[in-house]
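pinging the channel bc i need a second pair of eyes. not urgent but kinda urgent?? the chain im working w is below, pasted from the shared doc
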Amino acid sequence: MGLLRRVARARLAGLVIRRLRRAGFADAKYDARGFRVRFTADGDETPTILELAPLLATRGGRRRERVDRFVAGLVRSPGLPLDWVQARPLLRPVLRGGTPGTPLRRPVLPFLSEFVVVDSPDTMTYVGPEQPAGWGVSAEEVFEAARANLSGAVLHGVANEPVVVRFVDDGDAYWTSHLLLPHWLERLAGQVGGVPVAFAPERGTLLVTADGSDHLEGLFALAEEIYAASSRPITPMGYASDENGCTVPYQAPPGTPLHRAVTRAERVLAIREYARQAATQPDTAGAPNTAVPRGRPAGAERPARPTPPNQAEVPNQAEVPNQAEVPNQAEVPNQAEVPGPAEVPGPAEVPGVAELPNPAGLPDLAELRLVDSGERGWRTRALWERNEPILLPTADEVQVGENVCLWAELAAHLTMAPGFEPTRWLATGWPRA
């Protein structure tokens, strides 16, 4: 990160903390590594985490006005609605990987979970695991109410050939969350020119194209590029619908053209989520609320990226473009342009995560790396460099000292460690030769 950007982030954090402290939030503190502010609202037992990245997109007086509006909203209505009748229409589902604290969640896809937020004009606040009981409802009712509040919008028009549709989120549409709705993705078949395949590389971007199209391999590369550069990533993987209309990971069997791209995306996601886990100490103070300023889409502060072919930008209501309106195929990046293994972030490089010490008494958390095994394709490798207890991530293979062995060869010597998501495995010492 350049010096000017670090200065801009520090200035923004200082502005937010000054406004919060003037408003009575005396414990407001800045987490420079995670680029967020933590404070406790009156009447709340758990802290609130304010993500600062969305505020960085606005400048000058507009930024100050937005900060003032956000803080004023906290003063007027700190915390979550107390009544289920008030809360229910404000709930929205969100698809995320690692999230600060321990909000209400349920696993829905590999390394990804469904969370619920309370959507207000200026902030989104994650619902905590104890909140449903306070509203007098079950967690399942909260999830179902949140899904029911999505628009479920459907594109208009029919594509004459496979195209790429890009959904642009203005902060209100929750396009990536629509992947949680049964049958929503499959209903886009007519508009993308075939069986839909979707990518949600970051919170503000949803890309959909047709399976079997010439665009698909390039979209795997583009999705990883967006995912790697984003401060608010979700997943580089592709997704399709199963026979029940539920969103599932896109599959490409060995020997098919997309197998390497699919297996790489799966493993890049695993590496980043394990790196996030290793960089974040479990919160022992309870589950914080996470407040996110509303308005400009996530990632708006970054320069524009290349546009895929035959692509329409879809606002809250969308139509498939005429074929004459779309760019040519040469703009899709080749798979060769995908970042190499060295560019997959390690624990200290994951955006939005503070690197904290490992809790006392726990073995070290082993690093997970991406390696290219030639004919076997992309693989994950966990590093166990010293003969001492360690917590291993699930991997294709493990480097034990100077030797590399398959995961199956070690499985009998491992014990699942409780309290880790994604799963970690306790290994007490190198197996005897």
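so The two ends are 45 Å apart (CA to CA). and The first helix runs from residue 3 to 22. — does that match what u expected or am i reading it wrong
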